[in-house]
Amino acid sequence: MEDRKKTLKDLETAKNDTQKLLNSLLEKLGESLVSRMDTHSAAANKAVLPDEDNPFHLWEEKKRLQKEIADSEENIKSIETDLRHIGELEEEINRKEREKNEKSREISGVYEDLGRFILNSSGFSGFNAAYEQEFGDISGKIDFQQKRLEELNNSEGGIINGLANGVKSMVTRTLLSRNEANLEKLYRFAGEQFLTGLENPSGSRILPEESRLAEEGKFAPVVQQGCELRKSAAQLRDEIESLRNDRRETAQALDQKGNPARRISELETCITRTFDDIGRLHIRFGSLILEKEWKKFFAADLNTERILYDKIISLDESLKNTEAKIDSTRVAIALDNEKSEILKLREGIDERRKRIAETEAVIAEMEEQITAAEKRMTELTEKYGQNQ
Whose CA is closest to 280, among 14, 11, 34? Predict the structure, then answer.
């Protein structure tokens, strides 16, 4: 029994291995032959094929599956193209943002230089009128704090006086730094407003002679540089906005169809599944070609694959032999099981019969004891009388 079970297990393993190899060869044969189906297309159009399980229908099915794969691959390419485009737009936006920031720093420097020149020049009194009070206040504070620092640094005295002056100097330097920063901010603002007024004269406070002085005077190169930088910065802002709109529209179009990464994963899964379907179709195609009704029809094609065909026939015979051995082994195991069951039942019967015989012997002995007891009772009655 155990030997037969081991034999069955070995046979089933051999069958599975043979089936895998046979399927591999059938798939190879089917793939090779289905690629030549164009030569049989005329016959396919004329043939009456009510049964869908035939080579011509399988051929049409493969073309449908191939189109599914091509469509899925095209969709993946389209998604990847859009994602790549979004990535390129991101890089371009970041590059132009860095360029814009650099322009902003350059423009800020020009504004400050221009504002410093204008606010400290008497030739721009008309424009400077709006900043005169603030400029005077900040400049006065700076002059006062600079003089105060000089006094504190030059003062003499003891340790306590020196410590007190040190604290005063620190406070004064803080106030001085703050006012110097405010003055630089005022220069930048004034320079920006002046350039804005030059570019948009309507409603500007800049007088005509001030405009000519800025455009033709010694500071004209700085004015020209500022105007060019502002124009360049404005162009960069427009380009960045256009790129952002393009990125937003592309991303929205992608998101409307679902998460791009998930869609690619689903399409790749679909492609893998479809390739598996084509593999199974090739196996079925190869199997059908070996059937008698189709073997003659595809005789010329099979002749070109004679070596592969012979291997398949050999494996098919081997598989059938193995299956026959498996069947016979299973029958033998089943018979062994039945014999074992019969033997077990007979042993049970014998055991029960033995128990019955033992029980009957006990019963017979008890009956003898009863008979003896009854005999003794009769003898006693006869000897002593019934009333005794």
Answer: 34
